[in-house]
Design brief:
Keywords: Signal. The protein has 4 helices and 20 strands. Helices cover 16% and strands 35% of the residues. Strand 7 and strand 8 form a beta hairpin. The C terminus is likely disordered. The longest helix is centred in the middle third of the chain and has 18 residues. It is an alpha+beta fold. The strands form 5 sheets. Strands 5, 6, 7, 8, 9, 10, 11, 12 and 13 form a 9-stranded antiparallel beta sheet that branches. A 4-stranded mixed beta sheet has the order 15-18-17-16, covered by helices on one side. It has a 3-stranded antiparallel beta sheet with strand order 14-4-19. The chain folds into 2 domains: 255 residues, 3-Layer(aba) Sandwich (Protein Transport Mog1p, Chain A); 53 residues, no CATH class. The chain is elongated, with a radius of gyration of 23 Å.
Length: 337
């Protein structure tokens, strides 16, 4: 199954080599590559007969609310990237120490199947390997294989991720490092952590990052609006009209049936009632029209809890976007740090 926002993850990542690595003044080394992928309508989105662009269509706005502190890690900086496909990143530092940090990246992904997520993780690993093969990149790089890890978000549900550990030499210093990747509420969340080899083993670096992103996931809010919200229509049942036949479920108000769930719509005496809204949500779930992290537009406005920070992302489709549904929108930004 190919989902909205699915990745082709082509070999174009090799373009990374030509770009070279740009080393930040704070010691964090970065390089970027762009890999475009087509948007498509998935089986889970069959209720929407027309194909819409991932950004500016399927996803129009996202609310990211992240904790300012995760254990002893403190959020220090956030960055919005010029291209909306690249999303945002947040840097956490460890207490007062400035020799280690964790960067967390949030990329809009849409609906990806498990197979597509696995492919995304493989491509992220391969992109890191490319850094060790380019002039000015990592030296003497050694990388492990991808491993699965579980990061529960609470309330009994969980999010499976992939992680990898590596070692490399940069500017004469040997480092141990790790990368994690998760698919959570239509976003790819990537974590990157590097530390001096004398301070941590590779396994410890990977475990530290896995524990961090697990704790982060439990506190993180990712809420989006757009065409991802695909509600069942609610029709008014006029006074004196007989109750519809063949309802899948009904809800009563004041002891009288007031809302009826049909296979393709809700019929209600009061369309704005709690009962009608509840059956609408149930029907969306049965019809596979509920997407994780997608909300009604009016529900996205929420207070930001204490010790949390909010980032608002507003997406627009490119002005030159053609009607062709194979329009390439999604890109991959590879961080190296």
């Amino acid at each position: 199954m190919t989902g909205i926002g699915s990745k082709a993850w082509s070999c174009a990542l090799v373009a990374l080599c030509a770009a070279g690595a740009a080393y930040a003044a704070d010691g964090g080394d970065r390089a970027t590559a762009q890999t475009s992928v087509p948007t498509a309508t998935s089986g889970a989105a069959q209720a929407q007969p027309t194909t819409v662009p991932l950004l500016g269509g399927f996803l129009r706005e996202t609310r990211v609310v992240y904790p300012l502190r995760v254990g002893k890690w403190q959020a220090m900086d956030e960055r919005r990237y010029d291209r909306q496909e690249f999303g945002v990143s947040v840097r956490y530092t460890y207490g007062s120490r400035r020799d280690r940090w964790i960067d967390v990246y949030f990329y809009p992904a849409g609906l990806l199947s498990q197979t597509e997520f696995e492919q995304a993780a493989l491509e992220e690993r391969d992109a890191l390997l490319q850094i060790g093969r380019q002039p000015g990149g990592y030296e003497s790089m050694d990388m492990g294989e991808l491993q699965a890890f579980a990061s529960a978000r609470g309330r009994g549900d969980g999010s499976n991720g992939r992680s990898v550990d590596l070692a490399y030499t940069h500017q004469g210093e040997r480092k141990h490092s790790a990368m994690t990747l998760q698919l959570d509420r239509m976003y790819l969340i990537k974590g990157r952590y590097s530390v001096a080899a004398k301070s941590s083993s590779r396994a410890q670096a990977r475990s530290t990052l896995e524990d961090f992103v697990g704790d982060l996931s439990r506190k993180l809010t990712l809420a989006s609006t757009g065409r991802c919200w695909d509600p069942l229509p609610i029709e008014t049942l006029q006074a004196g009209t007989p109750a519809p036949q063949g309802a899948l479920s009904t809800l009563a108000k004041d002891g009288v049936d007031s809302a009826y769930l049909m296979s393709d719509r809700v019929i209600a005496r009061e369309p704005q009632s709690t009962e009608a809204q509840a059956l609408q949500t149930i029907g969306m779930g049965l019809a596979q029209r509920l997407r994780p992290g997608c909300q009604r537009p009016e529900e996205i406005e929420q207070n930001v809890p204490q010790d949390m920070r909010e980032i608002r992302l507003e997406y627009t489709a490119p002005s030159d976007a053609p009607a062709d549904p194979s329009r390439l929108l999604r890109s991959s930004k590879i961080d190296v740090g």
